[in-house]
Design goal:
By secondary structure, this protein is α+β, with helices and mostly antiparallel strands. The chain has 14 helices and 21 strands. The strands form 5 sheets. The chain has an 8-stranded antiparallel sheet with strand order 17-14-16-15-19-20-18-21. Helix 10 packs antiparallel against helix 11. It is globular.
């Protein structure tokens, strides 16, 4: 077994682990990088025998401490790659440590695609689905809803296969399990033949886009927009299927929009804004006018996803879709009358209702509001103000993004919360997969 670190009587610890944003760290007793499912099972059994907790971590793109542990940290990166493609069933089975970027590239070579995706693809498939990663969609939902089967190692080291027909009660919850039910080893996703999307990006005023939100949602398969705080400006994006052919942005245009403006200059202006907060509103007014309208067509992952190299901290809540405009207007009013200085745009996306126990869209059509702050800048005042608004509407926070909610709150906003915790009691009564984050959000 590939293992680093020890937990002997000397108290030796491994090096600290940090998440992508740098706001969460942990020092595990040992780190295990299993080369096979059997090695992973043995690592879980050994940890339980040693009285240590077990957590699996992907690429660390969560902003919460969902994967933090002082016990055994499982790194599944060696468990990667496509295991099977079933074209008749329209599925692909992949190992849990597979990075979404690698999966998307491999599927495209096979003439296949996921139906919907989030806006980045640096996460592992298990990390992304376990925390509820999603894109935007009128009819198509999160990554977890596209799972047709999975396998996970339970607290006693067993390998449990789950689907709608096999262990269906576990399948209903484990597609988005926050690491509380076991360590996922493989996932089977629904896929479809590769298709084209035409993206239309267009600046639009805040008052117009909020007034027309329901119309844009109804008329487009995938609609999202970004509001630039301290301004009345937004940028909208509409993605819809088309016959093609591919007509990607020109090399120069793509570099200007996706690299220079969205990463290079954006990094510079955020660094300047961190040093001189008073300049942020003026910067926002200029930046929100810099993006121009453009239309392009390409295969799905090239349209859904974008490079995100400017590091930040994020909070995101799912609200009932019919209340999102009202909540966003409240947020704008709070920012406008405060001395907050916000350099990152606010992102609004949608999702249809789904049937996953702890999905943020479970049982209701939803819309998401995501607020961000540049890495290293104080975010608590802004996030506290935003969270106060979101919770007034019965909002459900993204499991992998900053929030302060606890089990008592979740028991009120998730009708099936008790179903999940009862399943956890059955699968992991000794809390082998527990940590402080799960104790707060699920109770003990």
């Amino acid at each position: 077994m590939a293992t680093t670190g020890t937990a002997g009587s000397s108290g030796t610890r491994t090096a600290a682990w940090h998440n992508w944003a740098g706001n969460v760290s942990a020092t595990p007793a040992r780190v295990v990088t299993p080369a096979s499912v059997g090695e992973l099972q043995e690592a879980v059994r050994r940890a339980a025998g040693d009285g240590l907790k077990v957590k699996a971590v992907g690429t660390g793109h969560s902003f919460t401490a969902a994967a933090a542990t002082d016990g055994v940290l499982i790194r599944p990166q060696a468990l990667a790659g496509i295991q099977a493609i079933d074209r008749t069933a329209g599925t692909v089975t992949v190992a849990a440590g597979t990075v979404l970027k690698d999966l998307n590239l491999a599927l495209a070579k096979e003439g296949l695609s996921l139906t919907n995706m989030g806006d980045i693809m640096e996460q592992t498939v298990s990390g992304a689905t376990s925390t509820g990663t999603h894109g935007t969609g009128r009819d198509s939902a999160s990554l977890a809803t596209q799972i047709r089967g999975l396998e996970l190692v339970t607290a006693d080291g067993r390998l449990l296969a789950c689907s709608e027909k096999e262990n269906p009660e576990v399948f209903a919850a484990a597609r988005l399990g926050i690491g509380a039910l076991g360590v996922v080893t493989s996932l089977t996703f629904a896929v479809e033949p590769l298709f084209f999307l035409t993206a239309r990006e267009e600046p639009m005023g805040f008052d117009r886009v909020t007034a027309e939100f329901d119309q844009h949602h109804a008329e487009n398969e995938h609609f999202e927009f970004y509001w630039f705080p301290h301004t009345g400006n937004c940028n909208t994006k509409r993605n819809n299927r088309s016959q093609g052919p591919a007509a990607p942005p020109g090399a120069v245009s793509a570099w200007v929009e996706d690299e220079l403006l969205s990463n290079g200059i954006f990094q510079a202006v955020n660094s300047f804004g961190r040093a001189v907060p008073a300049a942020i509103p003026s910067i926002a007014r200029v930046a929100s006018r810099a993006l121009s309208a453009r239309t392009y067509t390409d295969i799905p992952y090239k349209v859904f996803t974008s490079p995100r190299r400017v590091r930040f901290v994020e909070m995101e809540y799912a609200l009932p879709r019919e209340r999102v405009v009202e909540a966003l207007r409240e947020l704008k009013a709070v920012v406008d009358r405060s001395d907050l200085r916000i350099s990152f745009p606010v992102e609004v996306r949608t999702a249809p209702a789904d049937d996953i126990t702890l999905s943020t869209a479970s049982g209701r059509e939803s819309a998401y509001i995501a607020v961000h702050m540049y890495k290293g800048t104080p975010y608590q005042a802004y996030f506290t103000a935003a969270e106060r608004i979101f919770t007034e509407y019965g909002g459900r926070p993204h499991w992998g993004k900053v929030h302060t909610r606890d089990a008592e709150y979740f028991s009120r906003v998730y009708p099936r919360f008790g179903e999940f915790t009862a399943l956890r009691d059955r699968l992991d009564p000794d809390r082998v997969f527990g940590n402080d984050y799960l104790r707060r959000v699920l109770g003990d």
